[in-house]
Amino acid sequence: MRIVDLIGVDGPVFSFEFFPPKTEQGERNLYRTIDHLRELRPTFVSVTYGAGGSTRDKTVEIVSRIKHSIGIEAMAHLTCVGADQDEIESVMQRLQAAGIENVLALRGDPPRDQKEFVRTERGFGYASELVRFIRARGFPFCLGGACYPEGHVECADREADLANLKTKVDFGLDFVITQLFFDNTDYVAFVARARACGVRVPIIPGIMPITNLAQIERFTSMCGARIPPDLKARLEHVRDDEEAVRSIGIEHATAQCRDLLARGAPGIHFYTLNQSPATRAICERLQG
Ligand SMILES: Cc1cc2nc3c(=O)[nH]c(=O)nc-3n(C[C@H](O)[C@H](O)[C@H](O)COP(=O)(O)OP(=O)(O)OC[C@H]3O[C@@H](n4cnc5c(N)ncnc54)[C@H](O)[C@@H]3O)c2cc1C
């Protein structure tokens, strides 16, 4: 099924994001996590796309297994990092041959040893170029893209960032998923600004439950998301008590999701980090 055809049909869409594990043990854990989360009947799940060749093969393999053997609709992420047009086209051919209908088209983050994103020879510099290419080649994928309620870290000018999003959508995105954020006013204001500049596609909020303070500080420093001061203070207060951090994280994310859905968000995309307990606890509270 094309994800865009599932949005707004039968209540909010719920989706879970996973990454391809590097080890066999990690892979066993991933499938155990998926098993725990499938009872929550997600609308779809997605699998990220890394920088190395073997992890990229894993993305195709895992989405295919999730869709065909586990029976959950699955979306493959795809980036422009370190690949030329032919390599990207060959991944798309493999995804199509595997019966995958949904792709999240991204520029990608620079690999760890590079400060800035570098376009390869005959490669793409922006997600919009990837989207244009996929459409020009006639691939029938339902295409998603990324967006940034607090602005993308590399773009100081929020209006320019929004105009770049509009270009990418106009080239053929069917929906977008936001970067993680912790303050819903950022999402609401962003959706209003996006609508005002002519972005009409569904904007699905991306939520990452906080389970570990040091980890979330690392993520937010990389992606530029802001932890509101009152939430930060509560977390700081219990910094070394993992259970207390987890409980505050679940409580905050649950309240965030309830409020987003009440304000008309089309669903929630959970960044699970391949762990089920927090996402499961939040979904059970939302569905209960
Ligand atoms: C839901 C989600 C899933 C993700 N999954 C992955 C994943 O699987 N693998 C991975 O590596 N990363 C992933 N990322 C991270 C993402 O790759 C990074 O945030 C990356 O830095 C930007 O990707 P993009 O597709 O948004 O790029 P773009 O839309 O190309 O934007 C990148 C930057 O370029 C600017 N820009 C765009 N067009 C132009 C232009 N024409 N001229 C000048 N500036 C321009 C934008 O304003 C922005 O600052 C994900 C992010 C999200 C939100």
Description:
- Helix content is 47%, strand content 14%.
- The chain has 10 helices and 8 strands.
- It has helices at 24-38, 53-70, 85-97, 127-136, 158-170, 184-196, 213-223, 229-237, 242-262, 277-287, and strands spanning 13-18, 44-47, 74-78, 102-105, 142-147, 175-180, 203-207, 267-271.
- The protein has an 8-stranded parallel β-barrel with strand order 1-2-3-4-5-6-7-8, surrounded by 5 helices.
- It is globular.
- The two termini are 27 Å apart.
- It binds flavin-adenine dinucleotide (FAD).
Name the poorly predicted regions: none
Percent of residues in beta strands? 5-15%
Spatial strand sequence of the major β-sheet = 1-2-3-4-5-6-7-8
Return the string of H and E elements. EHEHEHEHEHEHEHHHEH
**Number of helix segments?**
10
Please give the number of β-strands.
8
What's the mean pLDDT score? 96
Q: By helix and strand content, what is the structural category?
A: alpha/beta
Please tell me what the overall shape is.
Answer: globular
Radius of gyration: 18 Å
Distance between the termini: 27 Å
The percent range for helix content is 40-55%
Describe this protein with a few key phrases.
binds flavin-adenine dinucleotide; single chain; 288 residues; alpha/beta; 14% strand
Give a short synopsis of this structure.
This protein is of the alpha/beta class and 288 residues long.
List the helices and strands and how they pair.
Blueprint: E1 13-18, H1 24-38, E2 44-47, H2 53-70, E3 74-78, H3 85-97, E4 102-105, H4 127-136, E5 142-147, H5 158-170, E6 175-180, H6 184-196, E7 203-207, H7 213-223, H8 229-237, H9 242-262, E8 267-271, H10 277-287
Parallel strand pairs: 1-2, 1-8, 2-3, 3-4, 4-5, 5-6, 6-7, 7-8
Helix pairs in contact: 4-5, 9-10
The protein binds flavin-adenine dinucleotide.
